[in-house]
Structure formats: C-alpha cells, structure tokens
Amino acid sequence: MKNGKKIIPCIVMLSIFGAIVCSAVETGLTFGEIISSPASPAPLSTVTFSIAISGETPSEVKLWVQECNARTGICHSDIQNISMSLESAGNYKSDITLKYADATYISCKVWAKTDGTWESSPKQNITLSVDTNGNGSNGDSQTPGFELIIFIIAIIAGVIILGRKRVK
Q1: pTM above 0.70, yes or no
Q2: What distance in Å separates the CA atoms of residue 123 and residue 104, rounded to the nearest whole number?
Q3: Which H or E element spans position 164?
Q4: For residue 35, how far is the Cα from the chain centroid?
Q5: Which CA distances in Å does 47 have to 23, 24, 125, 137?
Q6: What is the mean pLDDT of residues 35-53?
Q7: What is the pLDDT of residue 138?
Q8: Distance of alpha carbon 53 from its chain centroid, rounded?
Q9: What is the Cα–Cα distance from 130 to 133, expressed in whole angstroms?
C-alpha cells in the first residue's frame, strides 16, 4: 500500500515535466491564412498567393500547390513547389500559373525552414471560379451552337437542290 501512494505523485511530476519539455521543443512559427488574389481564380490563370508568418524568421519559405477536380475526386500528380519572397516584415508572396483546365479547386500549403527544420501550415483548399457565361468555353465569347446553324443551312440547301433535280 505504501508504494501505491508514491506512484501517483511520480506520475503527476513526470506528466508536468513532459509538458514543459514538449512546449520548449516547439519552433515558435505561427502561420496566418493563405490568401489568394483573386480570391476565386479561374483554371489556367496566374494567381498571387500571400501569407503572414510570425515568430522566428524562416531561412526559406516555399508554397506547395496541387490542382484537383472535385467532380472526379482526383488531384493531378504535378505539384508546384515555388519559393516565396519576403515582401515586408513577415509577409511572403509568390505568383503561380495554374496548369489544368479541368481543375475545380486547389490545395495549398506553405512550408517554412528554420534551423534546418521544415514546418508546414495547415492545408487549405481554394475553390476555382467556373464559367459564368454558360457556354462551356471558359469565357472565350464564342457563340455555342454556331456550327449547328451552318449544319441546318447545309441540310436545307441539300434538300432544295435534290428537290429540284427530282422535279426535272
């Protein structure tokens, strides 16, 4: 019974010591929200990403971007890993050109290197804008169905020509 009373204080002391050691190991980086400009970019467009990082000053910051299609549930295997430049105190910025027309959203994450150790921000998804003019052409202002009009005119012309030959 005497040994049982000593075990509980030992466990409490070891837990407190462990919590102190674990909190001292933390690097001290705090990542802000990843901001894209425009907020809902279009597929194949150039997007500017920015993020605020506070705490220690990282020696290197990289942006990881993967384009995905929510309809198929597949992300493209080509992941862009671009260096970000320091714009102002703690604010990093980078431009990326998206590569896939079928992408509906992008997953992004920022990696910062301090003292030879890489630490990442939480992954963030950004929804891409869709064609708002309804013609399925991603805004290239072509009239949908224009080929259909030419096809109908060709059929009518063919019927008229064949009809005249039969009358003779």
Answers
A1: no
A2: 16
A3: helix 146-167
A4: 10
A5: 37, 37, 14, 20
A6: 94
A7: 46
A8: 19
A9: 9
